[in-house]
Amino acid sequence: MSNLVEIPFSTTLLVRDTCLCLHVQRAARALARLFDDALRPVGLTNGQFSLMMSLNRPEPPPMGPVAALLAMDQTTLTAALKPLQRRGWIDVMENPKDRRRRLLRLTAEGKAVLAKALPIWESTHAAIDGRLPDGGPARLRQDLQAASSMTAETAKPTRSPRRPRAGGEATVE
């Protein structure tokens, strides 16, 4: 005898049509492909462009704030930096204030690549902005920013009450 619960197909369709996470993932993948294709001639992906742009500052930033800006952990950031380092587009330097920490800096070659990529990004972005419906890009950015600033606590679902199992253990329904 199986305790497997069958989820009705109508629920699958409901999730397909209403899941914010699914819709954001699909849009992100489509936009990523668009920008990847556009930036390919200068040898960048959309993620590399964003990462390099986040380093375009008057002073080399530490890894923590860059990781936070890009919504990634430092391990993921370190992995993303490696190909850019190998190409000579960024330097990872010791922080003179704390030798255990690292600072990130665009090299002259990295700045040149970023300068070539910027007009491509601008034209691609303008084309996308022009195709967005009422409310346009400003509204979409505002909504996405609100969604991305949610903490796990804010978005935590409510749990069903616990009921005791046979043998006294509590379960969540």
UniProtKB/TrEMBL annotation:
<dbReference type="InterPro" id="IPR000835">
    <property type="entry name" value="HTH_MarR-typ"/>
</dbReference>
<dbReference type="InterPro" id="IPR036390">
    <property type="entry name" value="WH_DNA-bd_sf"/>
</dbReference>
<feature type="domain" description="HTH marR-type">
    <location>
        <begin position="17"/>
        <end position="149"/>
    </location>
</feature>
<feature type="region of interest" description="Disordered">
    <location>
        <begin position="130"/>
        <end position="173"/>
    </location>
</feature>
<dbReference type="GO" id="GO:0006950">
    <property type="term" value="P:response to stress"/>
</dbReference>
<dbReference type="Pfam" id="PF01047">
    <property type="entry name" value="MarR"/>
</dbReference>
<dbReference type="GO" id="GO:0003700">
    <property type="term" value="F:DNA-binding transcription factor activity"/>
</dbReference>
<dbReference type="InterPro" id="IPR039422">
    <property type="entry name" value="MarR/SlyA-like"/>
</dbReference>
<dbReference type="InterPro" id="IPR036388">
    <property type="entry name" value="WH-like_DNA-bd_sf"/>
</dbReference>
<protein>
    <submittedName>
        <fullName>MarR family transcriptional regulator</fullName>
    </submittedName>
</protein>
